[in-house]
Amino acid sequence: MNIKATLPFFALLLTAALTSCSQSETTSSESSSAENYYTGITIREIMASLIDPPADALWNSIRVVSDSNGITEYYPETDEEWSALRASAVSIIEGSNSLMMPGRRVAPPGAEGEFPEYEFTPEEVEEVLAEDPDSWVVFSRTLQDAGLKMLDAVDARDAELLSEYGALLDEACESCHAAYWYRAGI
Question: Does residue 134 lie within any of the structural domains?
């Protein structure tokens, strides 16, 4: 075998391999770009669909009712109940990812809240988000972390832990609402 004859061949293979790696890295970073995600669903819609109903389901899964029949404790018992709660926790976790996607609007232009005199307008919220997008990510991650804890409690089928972590979920929600939803004094 003539080494001088094979050197150009190996050089060509090495160049092709390096070019392929470089193109692969470019393609990989381009695929994670914000333009590759659909962000037409607003933050309000995500909250109304992926966050609020699942949070309510998790919070309401454990409760104590006092009525004429006495005191009754409710908590998840069946496989179906635990499975539904797992889906709720996953929805909060993934909904939090959606909240963190850049380029998402708060609400459709001109939208008003249910109590506009007590709520920031979507335009006001978007101004705050534009000034400090990192804080929004921190609030969204805190929500996601609470959802992950809820998922741990559900997977452990631990109703006491589910109740404890429900308080963390409530705190994550309310601290964000205080910054981005409620006007001062509420």
Answer: yes
For residues 158 and 175, what is the distance between their CA atoms, to the nearest angstrom? 26
CA 73 to chain centre: 31
In a domain, residue 1? The reply is: no
The pLDDT tens digits of the residues spanning 113-143 come to: 888 889 999 999 999 999 999 999 999 999 9
| pTM for the full predicted model | 0.79
89: tokens are 């926790």
CA distance 98 to 163: 25
Within a domain: 25: no
**CA dihedral of residues 90, 101, 173, 148 (deg, nearest 10):** 30
Query: Nearest-CA neighbor of 82 among 150, 25, 168, 13?
Result: 150
